[in-house]
Amino acid sequence: MKKNNIIILLTVIALMLVACGLILVACGQQTSVSNPAPVGESRNVGGHVSLTVLDVILPADDMISEPIKYTETPQPNSEYAIIKLRIQCSKLADISCRFSSFFIDIADQDGSIMMKSQDEYIHSSQLVKASIPDELGWSMVGLSPGSTLEGNVVLLVSKYINYTMITYTELYGSPSYFAMP
Questions:
Q1: Residue 4 or 99, more confident
Q2: Residue 155 in contact with residue 123, Cβ under 8 Å?
Q3: Which helix (H) or strand (E) holds 164?
């Protein structure tokens, strides 16, 4: 009898998880490499944080006059990209949401954020600090419940990759994909 109850309980839980997944897909809340969120549409990226890619400027070398100390300057094979974002905290309690630009990346049509460099794979982009207006920089941003923040993330990227999407992947999380304009 106990075995039957456990099987029934596990079946109900499995059905609920499948139904929840189908509802999220139907509502457009999940993203994938083949179905990135369109520019201007918000997606929950975890921790009650919603992210919207508003614009991507690539190349943006003429907008970056001088990078801050300790950041790379574009070499002949690289260029700057500026990603304009809107971050929103949907928590209702007195606990803030956290967002870090370290989890933003730029990817090719396969969703890959890695590129082959000589005999090893390396990240295809590097977060830089460039002193542009509304730059989010390298810090962890705290957002109060219900608040919204718009800002820019600057990446140094390869000129030789056909970038098609922005990714956001928190530590140990699944990536969220956002289409580029």
A1: 99
A2: no
A3: strand 163-168
| DSSP code of residue 63 | G
DSSP state of 135: B
pTM above 0.90, yes or no: no
- Written as six digits, the tokens of 43 are 């997606």
- Per residue in 102-118, pLDDT (tens digit) is 888 888 888 877 654 44
Q: Which two tokens stand for residue 174?
A: 């699944």
Give the pLDDT confidence of 79-90 residue by residue, as tens digits: 888 889 999 998
Confidence band, pLDDT 50/70/90 cuts, at residue 52: very high
Averaged pLDDT for residues 120-148: 70
* Distances from the Cα of 30 to the Cα of 8, 46, 50, angstroms: 28, 11, 12
What 3-state class would DSSP assign to 142? Answer: strand
Tokens representing 68 are 């801050």
Rounded Cα gap, residues 14 and 124, in angstroms: 38
Q: Are residues 107 and 170 in contact, defined by beta-carbon separation less than 8 angstroms? A: no
Q: Which residues contact 106 (CB under 8 A, 6 or more apart)?
A: 81, 83, 113, 124, 125, 155, 157, 163, 165, 166, 167, 180
- Whole-number Å distance between alpha carbons of 133 and 68: 14
